[in-house]
Amino acid sequence: MLPEEILARLVSFPSIAGSPNGNIVAWIRDYAQAHGATVNAVTGPEGDRANLLITVGPKDVPGMILSGHMDVVPAGEAEWTSNPFTLRQADDRLYGRGATDMKGFLACALAALPALAQRQLARPIHLAFSYDEEIGCCGVPHLIAALPSLCAKPSGCVVGEPSGMRAILAHKGKAAARVVVRGVSGHSSRPDLGRNAIHTMTAVLDAALAASETLKAGPFDTKFAPPYSTLQVGTIRGGQAVNIIPDLCVAEIEVRAVTGVSPQDALAPVKAAVDTLKAGGVDAHWQVLSTYPALSLGADTPLAGLMRDVTGEATIDAVSFGTEAGLYQAAGIDAIICGPGDIARAHRADEYIRRDELAACSRMIARIGERCAA
User: Fold this and answer.
1) Suppose 284 and one of 65, 173, 251, 277 were both cysteines; which one would form an S-S bond, judging by CB atoms 3.0 to 4.6 Å apart?
2) pLDDT tens per residue across span 240-272
3) Which of 101, 132, 133, 351 is catalytic?
4) pTM for the full model?
5) What is the pLDDT of residues 52-110, one digit of tens each?
6) Rounded to 10 degrees, what is the CA torsion of 102, 103, 105, 106?
7) Catalytic member of 4, 46, 48, 71
8) What is the third-level CATH fold of 3-170+294-372?
9) 71 is catalytic
10) Is residue 351 among the annotated active site residues?
């Protein structure tokens, strides 16, 4: 099958992050097995969704991972001009949810399987397809943990997030948390008889603002814009009406951390404020939503050199968005980002990828196959 044909099948699965993914997993598994690949499903603790490791070649020697996620963000934008889960072709563009982020890369990798299976690969190629990346890289840690039992430690990993087919060496790490504060409701004319959850939350917000200012003082990494770690309160909600004492306030807070800064440590002052509230008798809760480390690969590493060779393009120092690549690197596997499409098209109505971008990705994968062949 051509990449466009596979992409049409993949887009037809509404594999929204945070939901069961059995249908898309089953289709990919059956396709890969039909072309001679070894397929291992790594089910997550949720029980209704799984990662896939698809291997071509000898699994007992170090090989190369081509990594991507099967999940997509919701497609509720009113601006869609066609069904987001039916691939629509118009000139050289292919429209659909996930076409760029990142089922286009998955389609190219799967389309390459027949040719890769016919080669005498001296080193294996693994397709590592994960779940729930879009809600905080939740699935891939279980796949990475299972790798030692499934194959020899891979020598490198290419994460196919949209990069315009230029390899990216670094991204910031991230941690996000939800804070829930519960108070006591009542009539606003007698605030002394209740406990205002929004007012109580201000101690947490003050801590978040102070931590944000502290991070601006460094450490610095000039590859990034801005060149320091950042912290922001992304959402806040609470209260029912202006004349009711709010009994609930919920805030979500995230950190984007430069290399060398732990995202969890950067959030620590905010968590400390929550702990102080709890120690004072407040019903306050801290929930970690997601966390992944920064990626930082040297431009002089063999993987970076390989990617310059197989793409014919110079590497990019860093990007602001995050990926699963940092988790592979933290596990001791050199990782880099390179895939078809433009991240600016992701997470918006009429997401699309171009045919020439798929063709360029297919050429890259074929060249990696040549390097792994005997």
Assistant:
1) 277
2) 999 999 999 999 999 999 999 999 999 999 999
3) 133
4) 0.91
5) 999 999 999 999 999 999 999 999 999 999 999 999 999 999 999 999 999 999 999 99
6) 130
7) 71
8) Aminopeptidase (3.40.630)
9) yes
10) no
